[in-house]
């Protein structure tokens, strides 16, 4: 695991944008496509906005990138809480992405049907491969959740399915999510975390005893791939570094 610390969220986004663009170019030297899992929430919004501007909008061969999502709220695409909507507005609508290479988690069908359909798509990409995604971008909640793997929920313990849907009582909504096993087969996983309100949780996740029931972000440990935590000084404030 590599820890990267930036002064503040703005500098962090700049650092991550540069890192991701270099990584994409490096990977595409030896293969024809790049598979990228996007994260929802507020933290990556600034990152997406940067990637959609110079120099990254010109550096990155967007037509070779295949986009996926880590999780989704079961709300219509038009709803501002929809993760895919945010990514389209901030990034995908502004760069030259092939629409056929964008794979949203559908919310216009039943959640269980959406999860089954998404797993089928993933199997068509990676079913015969040892490695799944080239890059998975993740966030971490104040409670230590990542994706829709929330503390104390059964999906935390999923070992077989690559995609699951479930009803999250605390939010009174269904969620659709990738599971830890499919993410842990990725070539690279990048956590993006900011804010003093996440400092104690971050310390527990990285330096504390393993307790995935309490801190599901600890589940993300790539089997063969890289793991990077990009954090700002406020989020890193409680760590022993």
Automatic annotation (TrEMBL):
Pathway recorded for this protein: Carbohydrate degradation; pentose phosphate pathway; D-ribulose 5-phosphate from D-glucose 6-phosphate (oxidative stage): step 2/3
Domain Glucosamine/galactosamine-6-phosphate isomerase intervals: 8-229
EC number(s) reported in the record: 3.1.1.31
Matches recorded under InterPro entries: 6-phosphogluconolactonase_DevB (IPR005900), 6PGL (IPR039104), Glc/Gal-6P_isomerase (IPR006148), NagB/RpiA_transferase-like (IPR037171)
Keywords: Hydrolase
Catalytic activity: 6-phospho-D-glucono-1,5-lactone + H2O = 6-phospho-D-gluconate + H(+)
Transferase found in the keyword field: no
Enzyme class: hydrolase
Gene Ontology molecular function: 6-phosphogluconolactonase activity
Function: Hydrolysis of 6-phosphogluconolactone to 6-phosphogluconate.
NCBIfam families: pgl
Family: Belongs to the glucosamine/galactosamine-6-phosphate isomerase family. 6-phosphogluconolactonase subfamily.
Protein name: 6-phosphogluconolactonase
Source species of the chain: Chitinophaga hostae
């Amino acid at each position: 695991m590599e820890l990267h610390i930036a002064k503040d969220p703005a500098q962090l986004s700049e650092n991550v944008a540069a890192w991701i663009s270099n990584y994409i170019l490096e990977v595409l030297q030896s293969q024809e496509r790049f598979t990228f899992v996007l994260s929802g929430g507020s933290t990556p919004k600034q990152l997406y906005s940067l990637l959609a501007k110079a120099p990254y909008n010109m550096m990155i061969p967007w037509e070779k990138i295949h986009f996926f999502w880590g999780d989704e709220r079961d709300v219509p695409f038009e709803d501002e809480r929809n993760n895919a909507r945010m990514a389209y507005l901030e990034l995908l609508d502004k760069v030259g992405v092939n629409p056929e290479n964008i794979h949203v988690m559908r919310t216009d069908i039943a959640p269980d049907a959406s999860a089954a359909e998404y797993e089928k798509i993933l199997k068509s990409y990676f079913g015969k491969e040892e490695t799944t995604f080239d890059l998975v971008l993740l966030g971490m909640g104040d409670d230590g959740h990542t994706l829709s793997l929330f503390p104390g929920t059964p999906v935390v313990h999923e070992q077989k399915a690559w995609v699951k849907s479930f009803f999250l009582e605390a939010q009174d909504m269904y969620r659709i999510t990738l599971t830890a096993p499919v993410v842990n087969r990725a070539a690279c996983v990048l956590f993006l975390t900011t804010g003093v309100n996440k400092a104690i949780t971050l310390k527990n996740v990285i330096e504390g005893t393993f307790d995935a029931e309490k801190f599901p972000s600890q589940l993300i440990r790539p089997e063969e791939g890289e793991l990077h935590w990009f954090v700002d000084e406020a989020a890193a404030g409680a760590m022993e570094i």
